[in-house]
Design brief:
Length: about 290
Amino acid sequence: MRYALLVGLVVLAVAAVPQLCRAGSFDGVGSTLQPGQISLSAGYWYQQEKWEGTDVTGTGSASVAGRGSIGVSQTVSLSSFTTSSNQGYGQASVGIYNGWEGYLRLGGADIASNSATYLFSDSKPSDGMKLFGTVGINGAVYKDKMFAIGPFAQFTYYLQNYTDSASVSGQFLGATGTATETVTFKNYYTIKAGFAGAVTIQDAVTIYGGPFWNYARATLDFDVTGSGTYQGRAATLIASGDTTVKNDCDIGGMLGVKIPITKALSIGVEGQYAGAWAAGARITYAF
C-alpha cells in the first residue's frame, strides 16, 4: 500500500509538470551520499524567466537654450517580457544525513531579453557571462531502496550587474532628438522550494519530479542622455528611472532523471516549467 501511494505521488508530480506555471537544476531528492561524503559536478543550464510588466517613470532635467534647466519626466508602461540565460557551473555537494545533502554552486550566466526592455528604444538588451552563486539542500522524509520523497530548496544570486545600451531617435521626455539609453539589470535573485518524489529502477536509473514555489526579483535601472529640441528650443537632456520586476508565475514543476555510469560517476538531465522553460544536464563524481 505504501509503495502504491509513493508511486502515485511521483506519477502525479510528473503529470503536473507541463501544466504548472522555475535558477538551475534541483538534483532530485533522496541523496545517495553518505554523511560527510563529497561529490563534484559540472553542468550546463538553459533558463527562461517570464517577468510581469510594470510602469516606469523617468525623471531628470532639460538644459534649454534661453530658459535654463527645466524638470522633465515621463511614465512608460513596460510590457511583460521573458529573459533567457545560458549557464555553466561547477558544484560541490556534501552528504548531511541519510538521504540529505547540501550543495554550493558557482558559475557564469549571460542574459538576453526577448523584447524591447527599454523606455524609448526598440532594441533588445543582452549582456555576456557574469558570476552567479547558488546554495541548496534536498532530502528525504521517506527513503528505501526504490522510493524516496522529500523537500528541496534553492537560493541563487547573480553577483554582477547586466548592462546594455541602445540609441534612441525620435521623441523622449517631451523632446525630439537623439539619445543613448542604458539599462542595467541588477539585484537579481531567485528562491525555489518544493516537494518531490523519486523512483529508482533496478538499483540504477532514478526518475524524479514534483512541484515547486518560484520567487524571482530584479531591479531595472534606466539612464538616458541626449540632445534635440524641447518646446521649440535646442536642449540637452538627462534622466533616470528604476523599477523592481517580479516573476510572472509563482508555481512550477520539474522532472528529471539520474543515470549511473559507474559506482562513482553519474549523469543527470532535468527540465522545469514555471511560465517559461528551463532545462540542463550535469555530470557528477562522488568521492
